[in-house]
Each structure stands twice: as structure tokens, then as C-alpha cells.
Amino acid sequence: MPAQTAVPAMLMRGGSSKGLFFAVDDLPADETARNRVLLAAMGSPDPRQIDGAGGAHPLTSKVGIVGKSTQTGVDLEFLFAQLQPDNDTVDTKPNCGNMLAAVVPFALEKGLIRAQGGATTVRVLTLNTGMLSDITVETPDGTVNYDGDARIDGVPGTAAPVRIRFLDTEGSVAGSLLPTGSIRDVFDIGGIGALEATCIDNGMPMVLVRAADVGRTAYESVADLNADAELKTVLEELRLKAALKMGLGDVSAKNYPKMCLLNRPLHGGAVHTRCFIPHVCHDAVGVLAAVTVATACVMKGSTADGLADAADVSALSVEHPSGEFSVALETDAAGKVSGAALIRTARNLMRGEVLVSASVWDGRK
Questions:
Q1: Residues pairing with 206 in the sheet
Q2: Which of 11, 100, 164, 189 is deepest in the core (most CB within 10 A)?
Q3: Are the beta carbons of 354 and 49 closer than 8 angstroms?
Q4: Domains of the chain (ranges plus CATH)?
């Protein structure tokens, strides 16, 4: 028996995230066995992920699993897995809009689907939450184009645009847009007392807090916030209490809900943010986190109300530590958010095989 099992994979950047992509048929069918393979491939648990392909950060410790869909009207099915450098969790509960941007390029590279001409639009079902999205990539000459003029903050240079239109994000994990039933809730938090928060899920369960209410500005550097043990203690207590009220149960070992500090925009955007995923301050903001924050900006009575400039719902700019993220919200006649669209970029970084010990998986289904 060979000492290692070779598993076909591609290392891809999706938006401002990065991780390994696999075809579903190249992994074990059994979930427990599959998770062992993913942990071994990424090198978790280890803070440096030195014995795997992970990048020693939650944003670069992600996995995408893609397969053809047998459902009518759906082309591809995508399962996102969030791993952590320093523990052995494989979380497939939440979505990831950044990694979603790499799904269609991967499927085209892998031969799961064929290009449709100069541009290819594919309907993707995210299995984590049942979310549907239409994704368009450039495919001149029948191949994926990665070069272009689209620029997204958090990623150097420019690339070809990946257009994502979300079809149904409301209540993606928590079951409803406002899972507590209120647009603002008050929580008793040690050292602070009564703390107001908006608990919302429009693609990503989040707890939104005005930075001033926790004695911060949301203009602090990422490094300073990651070193702020007092703030992290407050946010974690709030996260655990809010999750229970949101119907998410005990999330002490989960990556959601995400936490976000809000303040007035500094650079002409709609709102300024510092997001935590959930314990590490994000250098940017996640795709679906941006959609959820943007949604709160247009909701009267939310913690964003009074801070945000949401006059133009077709271009809501969510400011973050490395720039901004623009979201185009679609609203119905009553002003209720009914959809969202945005542009990301993606790139195939490496293709080949990732090797895992045969003791982890011998390659048999």
C-alpha cells in the first residue's frame, strides 16, 4: 500500500479568500472520512498549518467541494467548509460568498461544465444553506479568463469580473431575516450592562453593534483590535447570548454568528465596519457579511440606522479595513430587500494533487 493517497485538487482564490477545491467524486462519500481528508490536506489543527496547504489564517483555511446537480434548473452544487488553523473543526453550516466566486471557474477547469460562449452563466446551489445564485464568468474561446480590469479591495491588482446575483439569502442559517423577531435587542453584558444589537441574517448570521456602545470607534487597526482582549471578551459573551436568542443554540465551537462593529463612513461609503470571523478581526469583510450589513443599513430602527448613508441602494459601499465592498440591493415596492448582486474576482493558483497519509484515507470510497 502506498504511504500517501493522491487527491486531485486545485488551490484557488475566491474573492479575498483562498482554499482548496475538490470535485465531490474525488473525496470520500462518508462525511467523517471526508472531514479527516480535509483536515489532513489543510494541515489542521496546527497554528501554522505547516503540514498542509492551509495558510495559517481563517481566510486561507477554506475548502470548496463542487459537483454537478441533478436538480431541475440547477447546474452545480457547492459545499463550503470552513476549517481553522488551530482546531479540528470542519464547519459546513455557514455560506462563503468569496469562495463561491471560484466555483464556476473551478467547474470549467475541471470539466464539470462547458463554456457557453464569450460569457458563461451558471446557477449554483450552495448546499450549506440552500442558497441559489446565478454566477457569470468570462469564457472567451471556451476557456476561463482570469485577466481583466475588475478591482476588489483586499486583493492586489486587477482581474476578470465574476458577477454574482443572489436569489434568496434571507434567513440563510437562522431561518429568517430577523431571527429574534426584533430589529434591535438588548443584552446584559458583563462590564458594560445593557448593550443594543441587531441580530440579522441575509446570507450570513451577524450581530451588529455600534462601536461607540463598546467604547470603540471601528476605525482602529486590525492589529489593535486583535490585541484587544477586553473587547474580544465582550464580543464573545454577546455572540453566545445572541446566538441563543437567534435560535442557533450553543455556538461556542461554531464560526457564526459573525460580529461587526459599526460607525459612520469615513470615505463616502454607506457605513464603516470592523468584522470578526468570529474571534479574529477581518482584514476586509466577507461577501455575505457585506450583503447583511448593507441590508441593515436600509432598515429603520437597526443599529446601523442613524450611522449609515443608504440613499442609493443600487450602490451601497461597506467600508472595511482594506477598502470598501459595494453591494447592489434590489428592493420591492414596499422597500423590502428582495435580492443582492455584486462583483468578485477569482483565480486558479495551482492544480494537481494534494497528498494525505494513507492512514487517513486509502482512496477507497
A1: 200, 258
A2: 100
A3: no
A4: 4-161+346-357 (3.10.310.10), 185-330 (3.10.310.10)
Let me know: does 337 contact 329? Beta carbons within 8 Å.
Answer: yes
DSSP secondary structure letter of residue 202: B
Give residues with Cβ within 8 angstroms of 5, minimum separation 6: 355, 356, 357, 358, 360, 361, 362, 363
Residues 44/133, Cβ–Cβ less than 8 Å: no
Secondary structure element (H or E) that encloses residue 350, with its range:
strand 346-357
pLDDT digit string, tens, across residues 281-306? 999 999 999 999 999 999 999 999 99
Instruction: Measure the CA–CA gap between 132 and 130, rounded to whole angstroms.
Output: 7
- Segment 5-54, tens digit of pLDDT: 999 999 999 999 999 999 999 999 999 999 999 999 999 999 999 999 99
With CA atoms as reference, report the closest residue to 290 among 264, 258, 252.
258
Cβ-contact 328, 315 below 8 angstroms: yes
| Kind of pairing between the strands at 62-68 and 17-23 | parallel
